[in-house]
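Retro notes
What went well: the complex prediction finally ran end to end.
Inputs used:
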Amino acid sequence: MNNTSIWLDEYHKQSRFGLNGKLLLKKNSKFQEIIILDTEYYGKALMLDGCWMTSSRDEKYYHECLVHPALSSLENKSNVLIIGGGDGGTARECLKYSQVENIDLVEIDEEVIKVSQKFLQEIGGFAWTDTRLSIHIDDGVKWVKKIQDNFYDVIFIDCSDPSEFSHLLFTDNFYKECKRVLTKKGILATQSESPESFKNLHLYILKSLKKIFEVSETMYSFVPIYPSGIWSWTFASKHESNFLKSDCREVIKIEKSCDIWNLNFQNGALKMMPNKILRELNSSENDK
Ligand code: SPD
């Protein structure tokens, strides 16, 4: 790759978000086009099939919000499943908890892991060598189908937007399977897209989880490099008591290790549902 700076844009609904930097890698895996751009402001950024996935500067906005509401509130958190998460950021945040004993990271595209280990070390970092982490190259939907009932304390869905190979992660059937394999008080935590740039999909996810689980809550914050910037994470459980209420001896230590998340931030972010989403969520329409 040469040394000249280029602009790379993610196109979304007649808008585009671009980063300027040096192209470190551009290749096609079995599943998608993978690009690494070295930018001055956002650090190294990963683009998959034309969509920005993460960057060393802004990844914490995403990974901390996905992981800590669930893990800080669960009494039992020894057994964790991450679906997707090939850049290692979600695993890194989970491994901050001493009670986490096992993480199965199930990523469909091995190349994403290899590229992240090579170019995005500041994201996955020590997680890749932690013996509590087991990597499985597999389809997350198929993986969950093979798992026995009541097995995982937490499931994190750390996926890209729906595509040919990831759309089944956004279905009622898959959410029901997740519910089956979760322990009694277990939590499903998923990125739930943007209320602005993916409004219909966002509503679909929220409505599905609300219908399938006994309790679900959505948290809003921002991920600067994603379309429209505003993003969401939704948490769901079969068990209502203490849902998302911090119950963790390590919480002060965890808060100190985070750049974005803390309990106050979380409490505010859980109250940020825009009125138009609230209204539609409570209406009967279900438009994917
Ligand atoms: N529009 C991009 C949505 C991507 C969400 N997942 C990002 C993966 C970071 N680990």
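What we learned: The two ends are 40 Å apart (CA to CA).
What to try next: split runs per interface for comparison.
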